[in-house]
Amino acid sequence: MSNILRNKKVIQVRDKKTKHFPRKLPPMERPETPRNDLRSENSQRGSDLHNLSISRFSYLNEEKVSVFRAIKELFEESKNSDDLAYAVQSFEAESRNLCESNSFTSCDLVEYRQLYPFLTPLIKTAPGPILFQMVNALRYILKAIESSKDIKPKEPATPKPGKSSSRLKKLERLPPLDSEPKTQGSNEDLSTNAKELPTEHFNKFIAVLLVKISSDKANDEIFLNPDLITTIISLTGPSHKVKTRMYAITTIKNETHNSNFRKLLVKISNFSDLFSIFNSTTDGPELLEACAITMRNLINDSEYVNIVVKNNIHVLLFSSMLKFTDNSKYCYACFRIFTKISGRDDVRQSLFKTFSENAILTLFFT
Questions:
Q1: Residue 126 CB partners (closer than 8 Å, separation 6+)
Q2: Of 77, 219, 290, 348, which has the maximum CB count within 10 A?
Q3: Cβ count near 310 (within 10 Å)
Q4: DSSP for residue 219
């Protein structure tokens, strides 16, 4: 019996530890938080513009949601011209806010892509002041892109879902302002054919709006702004696509029918940049012809003849005509200028010094 007990394991039962309950904590005071649900007192419609992103659409308080989504909804809900005017006004105001606050992000570019189809129909229907508000908005966006820390300047894009996944795999480029397909013989600057400015869509859109505004002389007062003229001249430069340049120089051509605009134009710091258009390497002379007509309008005032001659207009015209001797319209536009300046001794001497007799005879007898 003693042997059996010796072979069995003895299980010892340990006393359970006594649980120590924590001391009873005193009740916490309720934290005081500021009220943010007070009723806003915006009696005027204009005050809604300032609070558009927080008062009208609550989801804009969410992270990375662009205010342009709210602007798009304003266009969607527009029922008359007043509603559209308010939507454009909001677009201008919010673009300015994004620019001044340096808060422009890639999200805003994506939402602009969704807003864009609502803007293009206004080109044909909206009055000049409304179109100019769109110009201001686009200029703010351009400036915002240049100063943005979140994104690098690039063409506006929109998300395009993949076939087998809901993740965003590819960005679709913003459509062009017109539906004309690019052809091999299109009038494109050879210097910019291979490389296009990443923000050229906005530059072209601005130029299209400006030429539409300038087509109505009732809007001439809008263009009596030195900063705006400087911008338009910059759009005629060789770094832009030829269509952008064409729209820009056509705008200046339209406005040179206004004597007040002519007085202001010749005083602009980059006025001389217009003469570089005659050195453009384009397939056709349409861009150069618009510039020639602009210069002809300018020298309707004899006081500006000296200015264009100092910029060697006669040499530039002669050189460009030798390239397009088969284009009667362009040559006619150039000779209309020569009829105004060919009586000057300095012009004749400069031409005979620069060009050979054969070149001159070729031009006059072709």
A1: 84, 88, 134
A2: 290
A3: 10
A4: G
